[in-house]
Amino acid sequence: MAMPRIKIDHNKCTGCRHCELACSLNHAAVANPRRARIRVFHEGNVFFPVIAGPFVDAACTSKLDIKIGDQVYDMCLLCRASCPQKPFFIEAETGFPLKCDFCGIPPNPSCVRWCNSGALELIDD
Amino acid sequence: MYGRTGRCLRVNLTKGKHLVEEIAPELLDKFIGGRGLGVKVYSDEVDPQTDPLGSENKLIFVSGPLVGTGAISGASCNVVTKSALSGTIACAKMRGHFGAELKFAGFDMIVVEGRAESPVILSILDDKINIRPALEYWGRSTSETEVMYKENLDDKWAARETHLVSVGPAGERLVPLANVINDGFLSVGGAGIGAVMGSKNLKAIAVKGNHSLLIADGDRFVRVVTNLINKLNSAPFTSHSMSAWGSAFFIDLCYQKGMLPQKNFQSAAFVDSKDIGTEALSNTFALRSSGCFACPIACIKKTAVNYPFFKGKGMAPTYWAIGALGLNCAVRDMATIGIAHMICAEMGLDPIAAGGTVATAMELVEKGIADRDSLKLEFRFGQGEDLLQALTLMATKKGHAKRIGKGGQALAEEYGQSKRFMGVKGLSMAAFDPRAIQGMGLHFATCNYGPHHLYAYTFIEEVLGVHEELDPLTTEGKPELVKRYQDMAAIMDSLGLCNWPLMGLKFNNLVPMINSCLGTEYRADDLLRIGERIWNQERLYNMKAGFDHTHDTLPERFLKEPIKDGPAQGQISKLDEMLPRYYELRGWSEKGEPRAETLEALDL
User: Fold this and answer.
1) pTM of this prediction?
2) CATH class of B236-428
3) Residues of chain A found within 8 Å of residue B302, distances taken between Cβ atoms
4) CB-based contact (8 Å) between B369 and chain A?
């Protein structure tokens, strides 16, 4: 079944984190990256936008490394899950886990609208 | 309170204590925040005669109300103090993510007072405020400090969200050319601030926070910002040139107009701009865009350098760095300029001040006034090695490089050659020849912060011609232009916005964004008026610190010697034609003093 997707291009991301604010303004009506459902991590000069996925209450028992080009990255960096090892995407006040909902139906993600670098793109095929 | 947190953190390093204060709402109304608020608080609390490096001096970090709200390019955090290099008021514009993180940490402003006995780091992490001993960080470069600090934090994920501002070895050793560095980004226009921070034994400030910022009319704000992003995207400079090369793309333009200085402003012609323009930049460095917080333009370019003398990752040189460190020292090798720029970032030197000093020394040597024995280093125009050695030595104050570490003006005066120092109020000139760009020349002469282009970006009209095309060589309408841009820069810094969006937008376009965020009903003119108030406040401080109309001038070279070569050959700066009109527009007397009625009208 065709499903709308957000395509992430790590090579284009500038790490400006405008997407984080677009998300928090849209969902929480305040500016606060910690309440956003997308976060941008970086390793060296490369930025990785990560969109909130499932909440899990147990961490992995094994670690994965991922090699992109010549560089080896910790897979946890790219992982979308919120887990005890990576306590992101949780509302600080309520403790509720957050998950990306593509900003409603039909999907119109606010992060993509504010991403000017072309790193985030909505694909519908 | 919309946009702002309304809180100030006051830290006394002598006592090792801190205090959280509310910022008076009437101060925020009158001076907005950011630079304006910083300057007001600083002028009220610090005696203008104070020694910049004494423990009585204060250091203020202040983020504007739009920083961290999602307003386009709302990332700027200002550092206000008295410059150790010039003795004027100083205000660095810090880019990157520190300013926004400071707001999320719950503070608009940090006021640092006193002096710690031994090196310390101030950390504000999730509402826990600590002054930690930092002896092991002392002597480390700025990037080492950042890496080490983050490695020492227990929570690795929290470390990823922590942002630091620090001084390098130059600031620690009180070199007056020192600047502050945050997130690996060089600050703009902060020569002398690094030494003040070093004199307080404050190695770094780390922030991370969890607070939310409120927006007055969120729906409208989101619509307006979306609209502005689209506008920036359809304007040629902001959508393409700046994103591709950063401000380095000005090199080609300035070269064509003959305003690119060479050899300490002795010449304006270049054999071939291919060596130094955008082509060379792309060929030399693997460029990767890196945006400041919430910036759709992302003009900062990160790169990696591999060179026997220096290895590392950092910022690729911007226009002003290429101009000051490269062309003005007649160094044309892009790789060398890149390394020089990174040395500045690692050591915590200001590229314009350091480059200007080296260029002054090179001219003294070229003219046979100084020699290798007296300077203990060879200073030959065009020799990259000399430049790199000089930068390293002036930052570490080793041996006889102490002499050049004092700055260009002190060096030139030592040889009785103050006319060979190309700067105003003790600060070196940014890389625009004021003879070929008259408006910028007037700004250089009158700017409260010394001759730095980013406190009035008239370049946007005089060279790029974004909103109106003005001939850079004429003086017509220039005093009006300079005043408008100075006020505009003052208000934009105070709000926390970068100047670059003006390359694609009009100032008026930004007003709905400001109003919907702060819940105000400003018109563009109201904001410019506040900018004017801030400009006058700075002027008043400088006057009390001993600066008057005699300091509103340019070096003799620009007023008397015509440009020898290049497209603007034969031009001199017509400052005398513009200055009286400028004073009149500002409501100042012929002696450059704000008239009583002007101050009253501005509510000062």
Assistant:
1) 0.96
2) mainly alpha
3) 45
4) no
